[in-house]
Fold:
Amino acid sequence: MTIDNNKNITGIVYNHLNLPTRVNVDGGAKYISYIYDATGAKLKKIVTDGSSSTTEYAGNYFYKNGTLEFFNHTEGIVEHEADGYKYVYQYKDHLNNVRLSYKDADKNGSISISEIVQEKNYYPFGLQHQGYNDMLRGRNHNYGFGDKEENKELDLEWLNFGARNYNSAIGRWMNIDNLAENSIDLTPYHYANNNPIIFVDPDGQDWFYYKQEGNEEATWNWHDGSEHTVQIGNIEGNALNITLQGVSSVVVFNGSRDEQKGAGNNINGDGAITADITVYGPGGADDVSTYTGYTLTSDADIRTPIDEGVYTGKRRAYAGSSALPKHYQLFENGADNIRTMDGVINANTPSQVRENGEGYKTEIFIHRTNNSGFCGGTVSTGCLLIAPGDWNNFNAQLSPLGNALDNEANSKTFTLILNRTGSDHNPSKAAPVETTQTIYNLNLGKR
Structure:
């Protein structure tokens, strides 16, 4: 869309990410300018209507004309008032819509009606109800449906979801779906499969189930209609597409059979070819992080790596040395018995052979390299490695799962996907071709 006569929008300029950089109103006499970083995250909004007003976005902190206006905490926001910064708590419904904001102004431990700051109610596609319960006591917090920013300047009335802007009055996006090929039976401007009671869209990229079947509490799921697929062993004639359902967290290693250590046998050294790791953590759709790793052994010619595939991971409180902590052990089909790459028998453990003649390895962990990044010698005889600068964050992200390997109560396992591209390591031992086309369907565990 470049023009909207209903709102006197006379021109919209977009960048290469299909995000608006300038919205002209009344022939350009009034306008809104947007500035983004290279990934498309919004950094600044400048509204010009005679005078100008600037909003800046710095991660979790939001500034208005140079003053910190508010920042988020796990139960609401902390906002700026005349006498300092005050906690405002928020009640959100199962779709992450902000419904009620309140604060304990007199600090007596209870909330009275006079301490309710704002109430918001919505039609299914997000348009806010008007005419009742609309009293405002304090600052209007312009985040509501989906907890997304309401852009009401110059009567724009858009919601900013990140990757796209949304018009709740018509239930349609203002930008085309960049994953439109995954839903060819739907308009590329649809919101949440035209069913916002069941689905939500956290960032404008894709839509999710809000509740897992049989569970009363809300969860986040990859929706199978989006046809997210993961291909294991991305080698010509040897590809496997998989499906996952009902898992609490997923760790995806996207590596290469051509990985190599950098200068000085260092994962961070010059010339290193490493693996990209994405962790879909137990915190839900907002708990997704990326790290750097290494999937081959310290010397793949001597110690055979494990094969591409899907494994179950279990955390334990602590194991290994302080130099190489081993919190996460991998299992294949419930057993501590992981197939080697292409089934090649490991020269160092020639007795570890399955009945079908394929090699296997035991005690396979995810752990970090040495603190220096060194990953040569015997740092990995089959384990998957995490770069030292990423280890603490990786461990912190998965620690809420608890310690399933220690049989801790209420602990959860996670699913690990190991995928490599590149040349075939041993064509004569290649795994059988899998032709079943299935779907990557993740429950991201927001409970």
